[in-house]
Structure formats: C-alpha cells, structure tokens
Write a structure and sequence with these properties.
- The protein has about 60 residues and is mostly helical.
- It has one domain.
- The protein contains 4 helices and no strands.
- This is Cytosolic protein.
- It comes from Desulfofundulus australicus DSM 11792.
C-alpha cells in the first residue's frame, strides 16, 4: 500500500513542527498508541496546541459536546 506523505502533511493539523512522523499517519498512530495517547489531529485546534494528547483529555473534549 502506498503512503501519500505529502498529501497527508498538507492535511495534518499537528502543530508540533519538529515531528518526524508528520504525514506518516501509520507511524504517528503507532507512536501515540504506545504512549497511551491519541494523535493531535483528533483534537480541536485549541486543545491540540496544548500537546495534551491523553485519552482522558480527548474524552473530556467531546463529553461536553
């Protein structure tokens, strides 16, 4: 399966610029899963900027919606 890194980068909402996984969604998901986190693209922009990628933070974002 082909990975469209540049297309993914263009759509990536992660604000952590030195990230080596930007545009490599499979690597990003695996990395965050290993750390009991979720990727930044799943969070609202104002929360993503805090770099709190915890599952509990994700739940709290959408529990009040």
């Amino acid at each position: 399966m082909e990975c469209h890194v540049q297309k993914n980068k263009n759509q990536c909402t992660c604000t952590y610029e030195p990230c080596s996984r930007k545009g490599k969604c499979c690597e990003c998901i695996a990395y965050h899963r290993k750390h009991n986190e979720l990727p930044g693209c799943l969070f609202p922009p104002e929360v993503e900027k805090t770099y709190d990628r915890s599952i509990s933070r994700f739940i709290s974002c959408y529990r009040s919606s």
